[in-house]
Task: structure prediction
Amino acid sequence: MSEHRATEHFDVIIVGAGISGIDAAYHLRRDFPEKTFVIVEALESFGGTWLVHTYPGVRSDSDLYTFGYEFKPWTGAPIATADEILAYLGEVIEENDLARDIRYQHTISTASFDSASATWTVHGTVGDDGQPLTLSANFLWMCQGYYRHAEGYTPEWPGMETYEGRIIHPQTWPEESDIEGKNVIVIGSGATAATLVPAIAGTCAHVTVVQRSPTYFWPSPNTNEVADMLRQLDIPEEWTHEIVRRKILFDQELVTQLSFQEPEFVRDELLNMIRPLLPEGYDIDKHFTPKYMPWRQRLARVPDGDLFTGIREGLATMVTDEIETFTPKGLVTKDGTVLEADVIITATGFNLSVLGDIAFDVDGEPVSWPDTVTYRGAMFTGVPNMAWVFGYFRASWTLRADLVSAFLVRLFHYMDEHGYSTVTPQLRDVDADMPILDWVNVEDFNPGYLLRSMHLMPKRGDKSEWQHSQDYWTEKKIFPKATFDDGCLRFA
Ligand SMILES: Cc1cc2nc3c(=O)[nH]c(=O)nc-3n(C[C@H](O)[C@H](O)[C@H](O)COP(=O)(O)OP(=O)(O)OC[C@H]3O[C@@H](n4cnc5c(N)ncnc54)[C@H](O)[C@@H]3O)c2cc1C
Result:
């Protein structure tokens, strides 16, 4: 006890000043002005994903009416650049006086829960010189995202060491990338490639996109008709935000349902949307028809179809094949296609990070995440006073950050009213025979970074209490109704 109280103590420590951490802080300030909290952030500023990613063209693939917060109107074009998102987050921080609660360059490496004092003690480092850091809190609100911020995922290909050009991962885009006038290969065709390729297609000599398998793209104008119409009528921005948000969510629910009920129809519709944007006779089957059905991986929005403009104008070429080997001048694919490039950009995804790679223990017992079962995708069996914001894949991440915030606000009120200091998820007797499954159903959603690291993730059950369903439209109904007396949460 004395060790905990000797350190700086808060009611809540929020880890991460990205979109989720700022959401958490907003709710704490609004609903519990008397509670003390701090946001600890490893980076030198706020924004997380939107600060880390600086590659040309970096932008959202969700619309900002739903990727933005429920409480703060979005007034720009639906798809936003990283700078626009950072500016929006900066306004949220300023308008809610959150700057004083954020500590930058504070990196947490361990978190220990002591049941006797119901206290988390976190250790880490501060600043460039790594000064030791110790803080304590009653509750840990983990908003550290889901991937390693320091480095993206690059597979090992044969001959990579022989390549004489430069290899760049978009997540660690160099300040001086020097791609102007160069021949560039982009490996990968996910959302990152879809935003990067149009941004560089006019600058470099030529871009060749090498993809193992195609991705679905959804071209649409970067405007919202309903928002434009409401603005013409001088409707207050708060109303416009709420109405447009509801309309987008309504439409997305239909598309999501249709993707599962009539996947072939949705696939054909998506392909029909890109057909007119490509040259006559283009091999859409080979380059743009994925092996999976729509929505099993994130659907990449392409504002104004800009990805296809480069292909139409001969500035970008698609190659769909596996890489056989790198060569000193480029690479060779399995079917023998030889490609030369001055720069190779590996848009090959993330390294999953479970709970920020922080070593957790409870009363000295290390927490092994695959041995835990998630309570509603936010808390974990046997781990007291801790929640993690893990957003949606098919809908905007922030929708879940808002749901988790609202849930924790209710939970904190409940604990305060009953004088509880500890809440720990636990499986009930009725859950004894419940199948224990992977974090997500890979038939349902299967991005590479999850498939590579699923064994590190917490588990889920087959009941709604014990899973993150990835279904916003169901969860927005059931999460707010979750009760605290159903035995899933043990209070003390
Ligand atoms: C390029 C790109 C585009 C994306 N576009 C979309 C989109 O359009 N729509 C969508 O829904 N999702 C999108 N995503 C997913 C995106 O990551 C999330 O939507 C969202 O930004 C995550 O916010 P977050 O605050 O939870 O995590 P992050 O943005 O990852 O922020 C986490 C923060 O926690 C800090 N942190 C981590 N570990 C520690 C530690 N141990 N100690 C201290 N601080 C720590 C990090 O430094 C970071 O600042 C995109 C992702 C990428 C990479």
Q: What stands out?
A: The CA atoms of residues 184 and 207 lie 5 Å apart. The longest strand covers residues 131-142. The radius of gyration is 23 Å. Residues 15-21, 40-43, 48-49, 53, 58, 60-62, 67, 107-108, 143-145, 149, 192, 356, 358, 389, 391, 396-397 surround flavin-adenine dinucleotide (CB under 6 Å).
